[in-house]
Amino acid sequence: MPAIETFRIPKHRRHVPTARQQVRKALANWGITDHLADSVTLSANELVTNAVTHCRVSCAQVEVTLTLHGAELVLEVSDPDRNRLPRLHESGLDEEGGRGLALVAASADEWGCRQGPYTKCVWALFALGETESTRVPSAL
Predict the structure, then answer these.
(1) Of 26, 48, 119, 129, whose CA is between 20 and 30 Å from 58?
(2) Residue 84 resides in a domain
(3) For residue 18, which of 27, 7, 33 has the smallest C-alpha distance?
């Protein structure tokens, strides 16, 4: 049975650090630390930042879900602006932003997005190495 951690934050930049902290805490509770925790936390930071920056639905909330199942960890970030799907593009050297999805693509084993009836979800999948999967409690 998978272990799942879900939380929501208001769609505002000042709540991005809260999301980052909650992701880090959930990973630590599952015994996931070191490089993998850094990669998942970085990806969460980028995906949540994108959601709060680009979602055009006022008073929206951003939902973050972590699912640990077997040797895979999936990070999902959802918001109610279902028609604005993210796309990977190359940023120029003089651009300040636009590298978040490239960081996610480099950190995760796979990533993508999907539309629901009322939301979009951007996800990233991370394969657990042998050391991480052996640390995860068997009750999960």
Answers:
(1) 26
(2) yes
(3) 7
Judging by beta carbons within 10 Å of its beta carbon (0-12, 13-18, 19+), is residue 28 exposed, middle or buried?
exposed
Band of pLDDT at residue 130, cut at 50, 70 and 90: low
Measure the CA–CA gap between 14 and 2, rounded to whole angstroms. 31
The CATH number of residue 82's host domain is 3.30.565.10
* Joined tokens for residue 67: 């699912």
Write down the pTM of the prediction: 0.86
Q: Is residue 100 part of a domain?
A: yes
Residue 140 lies in a domain: no
> pLDDT tens across 16-68, in order?
999 999 999 999 999 998 999 999 999 999 999 999 998 999 889 999 999 99
Is residue 57 included in any domain, yes or no?
A: yes
Measure the CA–CA gap between 86 and 49, rounded to whole angstroms. 12
Q: Quote the domain boundaries for residue 114.
A: 3-135
d(CA 96, CA 8): 27
Alpha-carbon torsion (92, 53, 74, 81), positive or negative: negative
What's the total number of domains in the chain?
1
